[in-house]
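Handout, tutorial session.
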Amino acid sequence: MPQAKKLALFAVIVFVLYVIITDPAKAADYVQTGFEGVSDGASAVGDFMTWVANGAK
């Protein structure tokens, strides 16, 4: 099983490098989209925690 994990990780790294080398602008868009998703998720968690702290009203 550890060999499969290593192979999968290698495949992901090769794919990422391929995308970066062949189309840097699109790779930058992917990174920006990922960061926006993480930011939106963190904002949603913050809103939820605020709601809970205010008595869930």
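The second record follows below. Compare its token runs with those of the first.
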Amino acid sequence: MVDQREKKRKRALIVFQVAIYGYLLVMFLIQLYMSFSRGWWDL
């Protein structure tokens, strides 16, 4: 019983972390794309 709950909690924690890192990555990519489209970088 406790082991099952522990497994569920660990999985929830991993999903939560992936969601947060995914969100941060998306925000970073949007910032990068906007800075490129504004022409800050000459490539």
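Points raised in discussion: The two ends are 58 Å apart (CA to CA).
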